Amino acid sequence: MRYVVAALIALLVVLHQDFWNWHTYEPLILGFIPVGLAWHVGISLAAGLVAFLAVRYCWPEDLDPAATDGPSPRKDRS
Description:
By secondary structure, the chain is mostly helical. The protein has two helices and two strands, in the order H-E-E-H. It has a domain at 2-21 and 29-61. A two-stranded antiparallel sheet has the order 1-2. It starts with a helix and ends in a 20-residue tail after the last helix.
């Protein structure tokens, strides 16, 4: 899964360079959003999804203190 996430990150880097939308403001998406802005909204949502996949499937479990079976370092304040 690490290779898939790395490939998705590389794809996002390439797709982020939207040189074909630099000098166009038409067509308007939903009648008021320029196509370049809509493109960046899509790239941002895709980046959030890739970040979720990276954390979900590629994060090492030994770095997460909640994954250990030991007691929590926080004490209840009552």
